[in-house]
Design a protein that fits this description.
Elements (H helix, E strand, L loop, with lengths): L6 E5 L4 H12 L3 E5 L3 H10 L7 E3 L10 H12 L4 E4 L14 H29 L2 E6 L12 H21 L4 E8 L2 E2 L2 H4 L13 H4 L2 E2 H13 L4 E4 L5 H8 L1 H10 L4
Parallel strand pairs: 1-2, 1-4, 2-3, 4-5, 5-6, 6-9, 7-8
């Protein structure tokens, strides 16, 4: 059991990749702090763990409301005596052209995807540094490695995560705190349904790419494996992962593919 008795805090735990990470973590023996806005859904996830439900502790959290993160981190530490792993998974996607989306939409995406993760990390770091032990996983995206149509602010927020968390790793790895950057491709979740359109409302539509994507359970298995092995960066998905290498080694080919691809 790779995470036996470790305290694993997961945001965005009420659905999708986060929910799947809860199930994978308890299976591997972890004590899970499950956070998201929807307490009822978190309770559903806890109950779905069956005889392992006692390993799951529901802690509602809104990534746009960071004022109470320090208090929540203190609560977790005082109850469990440590925070071994923080999985910054909560986030929101986008389905709108650059010129269609007002700045308020860009700011909202950054508040959730970047500043929310940064704020919670800063709240948790003092406890990890005190114990000289901890790992922080940031759930980025393949578009954290390149731009892509209909995802301008989303891609930018994921790019920003790389700059921040790679720096955390460089500064603190010799103090016992390391990071893992996770870049999923198309995973079968509700991310496209909840994605923000140009007016800031949800798209309410499942993209064909998401519908045919990798199962969230398999994605979670690979995420937890990467965290256990303390990998610095991992790409999870199918053929869409190749776009990372096209961008790196054949940028001209990447641009042709990206322009002609169906961004949904």
């Amino acid at each position: 059991m790779k995470f036996k008795d470790q305290v694993v805090w997961i945001t965005g735990a009420s659905s999708g990749i986060g929910e799947a990470c809860v199930y994978e973590s308890v299976k591997e023996g972890a004590i899970v702090i499950a956070s998201a806005r929807r307490e009822k859904e978190l309770q559903r996830v806890k109950n779905a763990c069956g005889d392992k439900a006692a390993q799951v502790h529901v802690l509602p959290l809104d990534l746009t409301q960071s004022a109470n993160f320090a208090e929540l981190a203190k609560e977790v530490f005082e109850q469990h005596g440590k925070i071994d792993v923080l999985i910054n998974n909560g986030g929101i996607s986008q389905r709108s052209l650059v010129h269609e989306a007002p700045l308020s939409v860009d700011r909202k995406i950054f508040e959730v995807n970047f500043f929310g993760q940064v704020a919670l990390t800063k709240a948790v770091l003092p406890y990890m540094l005190e114990k000289k032990h901890g790992q922080i996983a940031a759930i980025s995206s393949v578009v954290g490695k390149f731009g892509f149509p209909l995802r301008s602010a989303y891609a930018a927020s994921k790019h920003a995560l790389h700059g921040f968390f790679e720096t955390v790793d460089l500064e603190l790895s010799d103090k016992g705190v390391q990071t893992t950057m996770v870049c999923p491709g198309r995973i079968k979740t509700a991310v496209s349904i909840n994605a923000l359109t140009g007016d800031g409302t949800p798209a309410n539509e499942m993209d064909p790419g998401q519908e045919n994507g990798m199962a969230a359970e398999e994605c979670a298995r690979q995420i937890m494996k990467a965290i256990h092995k303390r990998k610095k960066e991992v790409y999870i998905g199918r053929f869409e992962i190749l776009a990372i290498y096209f961008k790196r080694y054949m940028p001209w080919l990447f641009r042709i593919i990206a322009r002609k691809s169906n961004p949904r």
